[in-house]
Amino acid sequence: MRWVEIGQxxxxxxxxxxxxxxxxxxxxxxxxxxxxxxxxRSRDSAKRYPIENARPEGRAHFSLKLGGVEDRTxxxxxxxxxxxxxxxxxxxxxxxxxxxxxLIGLRVETEDGRSLGVIEGVxxxxxxxxIVCRAGTRETLLPxxxxxxxxxxxxxxxxxxRLLKGLEAGDDAL
Length: 174
Description:
Blueprint: E1 3-13, E2 18-23, E3 36-40, E4 47-56, E5 61-66, H1 72-76, E6 82-86, H2 100-103, E7 107-110, E8 115-123, E9 130-135, E10 138-143, E11 149-153, E12 158-161
């Protein structure tokens, strides 16, 4: 089964065993349909929990009431762990949108054909996601914005980008 990390537990939420999760989801539309999640440091070590309730908590968070987590102490024990769901539970995205999971491993090239390496991760920031691209020891951080991401072809395993001034190691920032 394919897994997708949808967030990280940041703290207990209330006294009844809820957890607050930093969301990696673009919207909260998925939350009502979640029946279970796997919680752990990695997919391989994650433990299955039934979801009794899921609700948005502001723009960047959601909270979960997990079966078997009955008090604040138990919820606090999950702090820092990742929340995984089956890929199939995510649903289809509109054209031009991608799950982070789909981007990992894509080759990244500039518009003039220069290789920047392979996408090894994506992380959220306040304003936009950031794509981590690596070629050997060189790491390039690319903001996931239309001015930078020019095209994505999942089938061909390729992303084409336009490098703005300051994005590559060694560039003088603006």
